[in-house]
Design a protein that fits this description.
- The chain is mainly α.
- About 75% of the residues lie in helices and about 0% in strands.
- It is built from seven helices and no strands.
- The chain starts with 10 loop residues before the first helix and ends with a helix.
């Protein structure tokens, strides 16, 4: 029978901790928990998505873009992953990348209003 010791914290535990910190508005603690979870499971797109959300909140758009791209590259089947890439790219002023990503999001989910809204904002160059 194997015994788990306190140093063997699982990715799921760290992710749950990060979620709790986020709800409490403890951004830095949440980031630390998610980064810990990523080190345990670097192939989990949800973790990169959560990191991206943190970096957006911190207005750290280049790290947000990197995290969202990692999430999308691991699982590009969700429209929201492309939307997040578009949002971060747009915030950075990378309109080509933003256009491409929002187009992909709209292809995967043509009815989502927020995708259409962002697409219009990108095209109009409005914030």
């Amino acid at each position: 029978e194997t015994q788990t010791n306190s140093t063997d914290i699982t990715e799921a535990t760290l992710m749950a901790e990060g979620d709790t910190f986020m709800e409490q508005g403890k951004i830095k603690e949440a980031e630390r928990a998610y980064l810990g979870a990523v080190s345990k499971n670097p192939k989990e797109p949800k973790l990169y998505n959560r990191l991206g959300a943190i970096y957006l909140k911190l207005h750290n758009y280049s790290d947000a873009l990197q995290a969202f791209e990692a999430a999308r590259d691991l699982d590009g089947s969700k429209a929201s992953r492309h939307f997040n890439v578009a949002l971060a790219a747009w915030q950075l002023g990378n309109l080509g990348k933003a256009r491409e990503a929002i187009k992909q999001a709209m292809t995967l989910d043509p009815t989502a209003q927020k995708y259409q809204d962002l697409s219009a904002q990108i095209e109009n160059g409005t914030a």
